[in-house]
Amino acid sequence: MERFAIVTGGGGGIGSATALRLAQEGAKVVCADIHLASAQRAVDALGPNGLALEFDGAQADSIEAMVSRAVEHFGRLDILHNNCAVTDPEIQRHDRTAVEIPLDIWQKILDVNLTGYLVTCKHAIPHMIETGSGSIINTASGSGLLGDLVRIAYGTSKAGVINMSRYIATQYGRQGIRCNTIAPGLILTPATERNAPEIKALASRYVLTPRLGTPEDIAALVAFLASDESGFITGECIEINGGKNSCQPHFAEMPVQDLQ
Q1: Residue 135 pairs with which residues in a beta bridge?
Q2: Are 82 and 8 in contact (CB under 8 A)?
Q3: Choosing from 117, 154, 167, 206, which is the catalytic residue?
Q4: Any catalytic annotation for residue 117?
Q5: What are the backbone angles phi and psi of residue 11, rounded to the nearest 5°?
Q6: What is the pLDDT along the chain (260 residues), one digit of tens a residue?
Q7: For residues 254 and 258, what is the distance between their CA atoms, to the nearest angstrom?
Q8: Closest CA to 152 of 111, 94, 90, 196
């Protein structure tokens, strides 16, 4: 059966890779992004199976209009991948500790990363109920599972996404709607390569795999959770981080020869 999907943050590294993977699996995909040009570039790779829409993930009216336009264009909605986030380096720079963070920065990040996800679900779920099924995949982060020295708003927003997804899974599961969360570790998106190149070497010390993650790794997991093959999986938070949280912290400090 043909599926119809919305990918928010669809112009970014993970979003565009996910949109492409879903299209390769036979879905028709709306790439929604605050930067229409980025969304259009992602859609150009999808051909007639894609539609680019501009929206603001911090504005409820904009989110509602985007979902309505998507459903109007394709006729139904089967898959929602909530993936947009505040990525402006200037905002991220101020997302530090509980004492230091300006409250407007805190609110901006929660508006997009958490409330925006809720609003998108709020308007997507009735369309899924109408057709009797749907899969929602929300992007969280390893930062939503563990503390850190900075980015308190980002981590808190992602923790909220994880439990919000469990609530949605509980509230709508009997109506055929599944809701899961993915929690990526460091993923080598163009933005990561551009804004934090020094973190690659540090992160590589903590993963158990020979390489770091790519957007295509995330896309593959989203495609699985969107498919009927994952039909008995809901309310879960799946970490995708090369095993980073599977080992003791001192693992990274041990010489390689001691690990053989």
Answers
A1: 79, 178
A2: yes
A3: 154
A4: no
A5: -90, -10
A6: 799 999 999 999 999 999 999 999 999 999 999 999 999 999 999 989 999 999 999 999 999 999 999 999 999 999 999 999 998 999 999 999 999 999 999 999 999 999 999 999 999 999 999 999 999 999 999 999 999 999 999 999 999 999 999 999 999 999 999 999 999 999 998 877 776 777 888 888 899 999 999 999 999 999 999 999 999 999 999 999 999 999 888 888 876 655 55
A7: 7
A8: 94
